[in-house]
Amino acid sequence: MTTATIAKPTRKEPKPLHGVKTPELFATINAVAAQPELAKFTWRAKSRWMRGTHTRSTINGYFGAGGEQDRGKDFIADADHTTVLTGDDKGPTPAEWILHGLAACLTAGIANIAAARGIELDEVTATIEGDMDLRGILGISDEVRNGYQGIRVRFDVKGDAPPEKLKQIVEQSCARSAVFDIVTNRTPVTVEVA
Amino acid sequence: MTTATIAKPTRKEPKPLHGVKTPELFATINAVAAQPELAKFTWRAKSRWMRGTHTRSTINGYFGAGGEQDRGKDFIADADHTTVLTGDDKGPTPAEWILHGLAACLTAGIANIAAARGIELDEVTATIEGDMDLRGILGISDEVRNGYQGIRVRFDVKGDAPPEKLKQIVEQSCARSAVFDIVTNRTPVTVEVA
Question: Which chain A residue is nearest to residue B48, measuring alpha carbons?
Answer without folding.
Answer: A125
